[in-house]
């Protein structure tokens, strides 16, 4: 059971880190163009979630861990595809 929890924790950490890095490299104007909050908003949300998970302040299976994972998934499944649709020129 502990191995499963460790594996799941690592998956969550990877999702959060990749989401944060992706949000950081996208241009600010792209967020405004697709009306998906601001770049700063997503960097703060994803940064806090990632940092809290990495430091171990947040249990991945607790309410705050789940909220952090949901934020990362919303970014990956909603915001990122909308921004990528704009293309490289944006």
Work out the strand percent. Answer: under 5%
The gross shape turns out to be: elongated
Helical residues, percent:
over 70%
Question: What is the number of helices?
Answer: 4
The helix/strand class is mainly alpha
Assembly of the depicted chains: single chain
Work out the count of structural domains. Answer: 1
Question: How does this structure look, described?
Answer:
The chain has 90 residues and is an all-alpha fold. It has one domain (9-86). The protein has 4 helices and no strands. The radius of gyration is 14 Å and the shape is elongated. The chain starts with a helix and ends with a helix. The model has no long low-confidence stretch (mean pLDDT 92).
Give a summary of the structure in a few sentences.
With 90 residues, the protein is mostly helical. It contains 4 helices and no strands.
